[in-house]
Specification:
single chain, 498 residues, alpha/beta, FAD/NAD(P)-binding domain, Guanine Nucleotide Dissociation Inhibitor, domain 2, 3 domains, 5-stranded parallel β-sheet, 15 helices, 19 strands, globular, carotenoid biosynthesis, oxidoreductase activity
């Protein structure tokens, strides 16, 4: 990939960054490196946003993101500052990348070796091995072109897409149809289609509402590999925080922003800790809808309540963090448990919101790779079930669903955890709302639907308040840790006119 453009100078500017998720942390690094005096305000007791950690009784859980994908993005981010990820943490490739249990008793491993995966696909459908290679070749092209010309280079206006250079690069990309249509053009077998589509959960969409452009995720998965940073994603948070500190960023935790007043050159940000922070410029990495609806007066908002109510939001999640006695040999570091027909689950998220009674879900067992995340003789794991945002998750419902998931794990993976749990915590819609001010308790923000991708996402630059900017998953390029790191670069470029 090309080298990032130089970020212009912000020497002498004071800037408040609201929110310490990856978008805010990344933006703060770029702005401090450009010479600004940067203060980052974080609502919670720790930095990282949704990439928080739960540490108790010798167990350490990544509470949010747990997949380390797109290592090139991390290399490029740290490289901008003359560093490397290896200056802060080490990574190892997982083998298998992940394991899949289907609820009809079928089980497969997706591994780093392409020929093994090719044979796996061929075993389900004659010709699918060759189709996999063709699919991955297209996915690699989509990734290389898409990242360089449509991700790292922001295009916020329609006219940015109609010049000759853009059209040349866009040739051959699946910019319109859905992922379902795209995958069906390569594979007939529903299980193979699921293997190519499971990563849509990371984008907050379904096969029928996510653009085919995101076939690039299969290049990320099959070709680039799935890795684990020693210490988990929390170690990556620490790395970006340390980098920011080296560049001069000041962090203030326990400082929830309650109001943004003023304009360029004269902002005041009030915080729940009783302090008022003054700055020339403000960047919000808080939930975009929360920033507009709660931190700004009505005349300073870009969007109405009706706008936010009409958006398609990424799923929320029901999470169970578990410390258990003994090992869990049948599970891999990353394990997916899928119904053979998963459309009903997506319908329960996007079409007819309700708790899925035959859920698709994800199990993460970092103790398979990292012996520092659990006491000796114990395993650390969590279960994540994507659910519709806004669902009622009262205590009775959570208890019923907890029992349903643990029974489902036992039935379909052969791993009964129920009689050896020594630590248990749940996290769901209410906590996403309360802890992260997330609209309707979404775990990720705006979904990457056909109508909410690229220039159709909210902008980095406020059109209502001069000097107010946005970063993070609501903006471009969108959802996911790598994308939020890139959003920080894009926001800094807007702020410096780069």
């Amino acid at each position: 990939m090309d080298v990032d453009p130089e970020i212009g100078s912000l020497s002498g500017e004071s800037i408040i960054v609201i929110g310490g998720g990856f978008g805010g942390l990344s933006t703060a690094c770029y702005l401090a490196d450009a010479g600004a005096e940067v203060t980052l305000l974080e609502k919670n007791e720790q930095l990282g946003g949704r990439a928080s950690r739960l540490e108790t009784d010798g167990f350490r859980f990544d509470m949010g993101p747990s997949w380390y994908l797109m290592p090139d993005v991390f290399e490029r981010f740290f490289g901008h500052f003359g560093r490397s990820p290896s200056d802060y943490y080490s990574i190892s490739q997982l083998d298998p990348h992940y394991r899949v249990f289907w609820k009809d008793g079928d089980q497969v491993d997706v591994v780093p070796d392409l020929e093994t995966n090719r044979k796996l696909f061929e075993s389900y459908e004659p010709g699918a091995g060759d189709a996999l290679e063709r699919y991955l070749t297209e996915a690699e092209y989509t990734y290389e072109v898409g990242m360089e010309h449509f991700v790292y280079e922001d295009r916020p206006r329609l006219r940015d897409y109609v010049d000759r250079d853009v059209l040349r690069h866009a040739h051959g990309l699946s910019l319109l149809g859905s992922m379902q249509d795209h995958v069906e053009s390569y594979f007939d077998h529903p299980k193979l289609q699921q293997l190519m589509q499971y990563s849509l959960v990371f984008l907050g969409g379904s096969p029928r509402n996510t653009p085919g452009l995101y076939n690039l995720m299969s290049h990320v998965d099959f070709n680039m590999g799935v890795h684990y940073p020693d210490g988990g994603i929390g170690a990556v948070v620490d790395a970006v925080v340390d980098l920011g500190a080296e560049l001069g960023v000041e962090y203030v935790t326990g400082a929830e922003a309650t109001a943004i007043e003023g304009r360029r050159g004269g902002f005041a940000v009030d915080a729940e800790n009783g302090e008022r922070y003054l700055a020339d410029l403000v960047v919000s990495d808080a939930d975009y809808a929360h920033t507009e609806r709660e931190l700004l007066p009505p005349k300073k908002r870009q969007y109405t309540d009706e706008y936010w109510d009409s958006r398609t939001y990424a799923p929320s999640a029901f999470l169970i963090y578990l410390g258990v006695e003994g090992e869990v040999p049948k599970l891999a570091h990353h394990t997916l448990v899928l119904p053979t027909e998963w459309e009903q689950h997506f319908d329960r998220i996007f079409a007819n919101p309700a708790w899925p009674e035959d859920p698709a879900y994800y199990l993460c067992v970092p103790s398979k790779t990292d012996d520092t995340v659990a006491p000796a003789g114990h395993s650390n794991l969590f279960a994540l079930v994507p659910i519709a945002p806004g669902l009622d998750d009262d205590a009775e419902t959570r208890s019923w669903y907890r029992d349903l998931i643990l029974e489902d794990i036992a039935e379909h993976t052969g791993t009964d955890l129920r009689d050896r749990i020594v630590l248990e915590e749940t996290f769901s819609v209410s906590e996403f709302d309360d802890r992260y001010n997330s609209y309707r308790g979404s775990a990720l923000g705006l979904a990457h639907t056909l109508r909410q991708t690229s220039l159709l996402r909210p902008p980095h630059v406020s059109e209502a308040v001069d000097g107010l900017y946005f970063t993070g998953s609501y903006t471009t390029p969108g959802i996911g840790v790598p994308m939020c790191l890139i959003s920080g670069q894009l926001t800094a470029e807007y702020m410096t006119g780069s």
